[in-house]
Each structure stands twice: as C-alpha cells, then as structure tokens.
UniProtKB/TrEMBL annotation:
PANTHER family: MEMBRANE TRANSPORTER PROTEIN MJ0441-RELATED (PTHR43701), MEMBRANE TRANSPORTER PROTEIN YJNA-RELATED (PTHR43701:SF2). Belongs to the 4-toluene sulfonate uptake permease (TSUP) (TC 2.A.102) family. GO terms for cellular component: plasma membrane. Pfam families: TauE (PF01925). Keywords: Cell membrane, Membrane, Plasmid, Transmembrane, Transmembrane helix. The chain crosses the membrane at residues 16-41, 48-68, 74-93, 105-123, 143-169, 176-200, 206-228, 240-257. It is found in: Cell membrane; Membrane. This is Probable membrane transporter protein. The keyword Endoplasmic reticulum does not apply. It is a multi-pass membrane protein.
Length: 260
C-alpha cells in the first residue's frame, strides 16, 4: 500500500468499522477486513489481505477485550479454553489456507459466512447459566468446538468471532453479551496465530495493518458502548450479528464467483 492521503483515510475508516464491529458483536472484524482491504483500500493479493487483516483484527480484539472485561462480560475460563485449544486449530488451518488459490478461498469464505448466518437463527441462550454453573463436560465440549473453530479461522484467515460467538452459545448457552465479550480473547489469539504464520511467508503489509489498528481503537470504544446498551434487548444483538454476516457473504460471493 502507498502512503498517500486517500489510502490513509480509507485504511483508517475501514479500521474504525472493524473495531466498531468487534466491540459491538465480538466478531465480524475479519469478515470485513479481507473484503475492505481488497475492495476499498485496493490491496490486490488475497493472501496479503488475509495476513494483514488477521494482524489488525488481533490487535483490535485485544483492545475491545479490555473494554468488555471492565464491564464483567468475560467468562475467563471459557475464554482461555477457546484461546488455547483454538490456536492449535488456527495454526493448522492457516497452513492449509496458504496452499489454496486465493479467489477460491474467498468464495468458500462467502459460503461459510452464509451458512453461519442461517445457523445463528437457531442459537439460543439459557438464562439460568452462569460462569460458575458450567461442568467439566461442558468445558470438554467447548474444547472440541474450539479446535474445529480454530481450523476454520486459520484456513479462511479470520479472527473467528463470527464462529466463536455461535459456538459459545452452542457449547454453554451463555447470554449473548457474555459470548461477545468472552469471544474476544480467542479472536485476538486466533488472529495473532494466523498473522504470525502469514508474516513468516511475507504476507503482511505492516503499514496498512498499523493504520487499521489505529482506526480500530476509536471504533472499538463506540462498538462496546453500543453492545452494552443493546444487551437488554435480547434479540437485537443476535439479529445485527446475523444480518451483518449475511450481507457481507452476498457481497463476497458476488465478487469472487467469476474468478473462483
């Protein structure tokens, strides 16, 4: 990426949108990062866009994690399980992803996003579940789901939040606002694992990543405030989450299908 003012503004604006999305719904940052880097900022190489986006999303996810943690939204035991187990899968997935044609990867990415948007219709939280009520069996189930989620996260070069939030709901039944906050530790760790793997192959644009991170800090503050205000409306966050994923999946499929 060049250092011109238009590119700088596009990168900062795109980063702000990613940060806001992470703070609001705990995911979607990486879903947006790759399309924004390619179709708005103008990055041409798919693998470089994936690596750069993963690094920026990782940093923004950790920043937003701090905001949600101060509000008590993070269930730390689940967060740590997902981060550790999922990172193993993310490393394997990112190694496989580098071997796949970039446009084919984007098309598969779009299909996966569309599938998750439909699966979110079935996600339900259980009002009687607390962080202390989770059993060893629940944590074992969470571990297996985390590994599978990590593989998908690394393969498609995504932080995984849009997979982790539904996965946490499936594994534990925790309230959505807690799934949003808890997911961010794994989102950051998955993204960092993927970014390190891609950087080792030269697939990270460091200047663009810096702009994205800078823009994401302000957007993350706005998103976290919004999430707290929407938490009392049980279905609102879930609907926002689902429709963001569905809309971007249509766009990615439309752009990548001719070349896939």
């Amino acid at each position: 990426m060049d250092g011109s003012l238009p590119h700088l503004l596009l990168a900062l604006g795109s980063g702000s949108l990613i940060g806001c999305t992470l703070g609001l719904i705990g995911g979607g940052g990486s879903i947006l990062a790759t399309p924004l880097l390619m179709y708005v900022v103008g990055m041409r190489d798919v693998h470089t866009a994936i690596g750069t986006g993963a690094l920026a999303v990782s940093a923004n996810a950790y920043f937003n994690l701090a905001g949600h943690a101060t509000k008590g939204h993070v269930w730390w035991r689940c967060a740590i399980i997902f981060a550790i187990a999922g990172s193993l899968g993310a490393y394997l997935g990112s190694s496989l992803g580098k071997l796949v044609n970039g446009q084919s990867l984007l098309f598969l990415f779009g299909l996966l996003m569309m599938l998750v948007s439909f699966l979110m219709r079935q996600a339900r939280c259980q009002t009687d579940v607390t962080a202390q009520s989770l059993t060893i069996g629940t944590h074992g189930k969470t571990t297996l789901i985390a590994i599978a989620t990590g593989v998908c996260s690394g393969f498609f070069g995504i932080g995984g939040g849009f997979l982790i939030v539904p996965a946490l709901l499936l594994a534990t039944g925790m309230p959505l606002i807690n799934a949003v906050g808890t997911s961010l530790l794994a989102v950051g760790t998955f993204g960092l694992t993927t970014a390190i793997n891609y950087a080792a192959s030269g697939f990270v644009d460091w200047l663009t990543a810096l702009y994205f991170i800078a823009g994401g800090i302000g957007g993350g503050i706005i998103g976290t405030i919004g999430a707290c205000r929407l938490a009392t409306h049980r279905n609102t966050l879930a609907q926002i989450f689902r429709w963001v994923i569905f809309a971007v999946s249509l766009y990615v499929l439309a752009r990548s299908y001719p070349a896939a």
